[in-house]
Amino acid sequence: MDLSQRAVEEAVHPTAAFLRASGGEARLYSEDAPQPSWDDSLLNPKNRIDSLDLPDSPLWRIDGCTGLGTQYYAVPVCLSNVPPMRMDVFIPEDQPSHIREQLDLHKAFHTKDAPRLSKLAITKHIIRTLQIWTKSTFEDLDAFERFYKSKPFGSRLVFENLSFDTRQINVKVGPNHNLELQLLSLKRLTALWGTMLQPLEVVDFFDVHVVSVLHDSVCLVRIQGQLFIFKALVSGVKYLYHELKTLCTVEPHANIISRPIHLIRKACSFGGKHAIVGFTTFYHQHGSLRDLLPQLRIHDRLRREDQLRWSIQVIQALEHLRTRSSTYYPDLRLDNLVMSKNFDIVMVDFEQRGVWCEFAAPEVNAIEYMRLVAADDRIPSEVSSKYQEIMRNLVPDYDRLQEDRYTNPQDGYNASWIALNPEEQEMAEVYMLGRLLWCIFEGVSGPQKAAVWQSYRWESNLEFPEYERTPPELREVIDRCTRGRRQNLGSIIVRHQSHLLLRHRLEEDHDANQVQAAAMAHWVAELKWAEEFLSERNRLREQGLWNYNYYNRPRLEEVLDFLLKIQAQYT
């Protein structure tokens, strides 16, 4: 099965339990697979790209990719100072197989970082297309700059079609007026939150200059010659405001990102509104623990003292959030742990959206499965209505949380975590901590090799819960932290050379229909378990008999004490 949005819906998400394969090619994964006809063959000149050579003086640069290979971070390097407009390139998801193969779209699905992305054909193709579009559409670069700065924040450059001939690609501008409607002014935020934003300096949007786009919501920018991280969202702006509020209310801690430094304000196209489109935080130049760990392992520089120190700092930050700020942290993964100048942990990302199911606790996944099915408009209405009702029983404000507009909720918008009480939230954090500790002590970028969503620059040969480097006493605590873990989809289906294949049949012939059938069987069983688990939880809660530490995991404090004792042996 080729990697695509359709593959996510029909195999990777629990929606696969209800969605039949939507047709298309049921490709046979075998060296002996039938050869394509001449009309579809890559030997046919019409099915080949004319050139992938970059222009001598490219006007654009691509800094990354998201949206499962459909959204590309485009930066107009032809401008001397680039404001963070986030005018990304969007390409249509459904493409013929010969275009997907020639343009490396199946690789772009899971490739996010600029160094690897720059080697893919689609990146070069986009740059060549934008070069032609810019030169043919605008009289000169001054005219282009006026156009670029006049559009709403988060507007899009939409490739309405893909062709091997860049001159045949139609580029359409999609102004993001809907985002402008959702953005709020400083006056409105002050009315909601009081005076908490007063200490922050307000900076005009066009005084912020992009250095590089690091993530779909994060840019490295320069303000008055100094580097900062600029956080903004081009969709789901309610999460941005929730994070801003959280960072302004959380008590300071050495291992948690500090309060925002600037509020970035931009004039909107209509109504005279000057909206807060984002904020800045301190730039930690050493990057994330996700990229650091495999490098240290490869060069045999992964020291036990550092591993213990980082692990302890993570737990102390989690405990601080829970006990001093009465909040939860559902985003515990390696790329949300950046390194300070002294190579200490700094926890970032407080949107509270959560992690993918490979990292999340089973009790969180049980609710998240319900939410994903309830929210999918491709699911039969009688099915989605059933799961919507389950969500409303779990979270009375469920419908309000689904709205696009910011409503100033106390606990954010993550229904799957809001449904849990504080003790259950702590146990879910402990589960994620166990997976994180495994990554730290094995020196790998993630708990799953060949993850569907993302490939890493340094892929591991290990997969949780396999052990090579972790000391025996730490293996025991990791196993206790991850009690209740279930076989996930990765035990059945894996990403292999940018395709989804059956894990146990990598060397055998099989096609996309067989992959989808296996995924459907997995998700039918998982949804059955999730419904039964939540039903039992509800019944026992009504009787006052529910054990909020259902899987008998250790408390954060207990894990911390254990690691501190081990750390003492190294000092």
From TrEMBL:
Q: Per its UniProt record, what InterPro entries does this chain match?
A: Kinase-like_dom_sf (IPR011009), Prot_kinase_dom (IPR000719)
Picking any one GO molecular function of the record gives: protein kinase activity
Q: Which residues form the Protein kinase domain?
A: 194-571
* Organism domain of life: Eukaryota
Name the PROSITE patterns on file: PROTEIN_KINASE_DOM
Protein name, as recorded? Protein kinase domain-containing protein
- The organism of origin for this protein: Xylaria grammica
The record lists the lineage as:
Eukaryota, Fungi, Dikarya, Ascomycota, Pezizomycotina
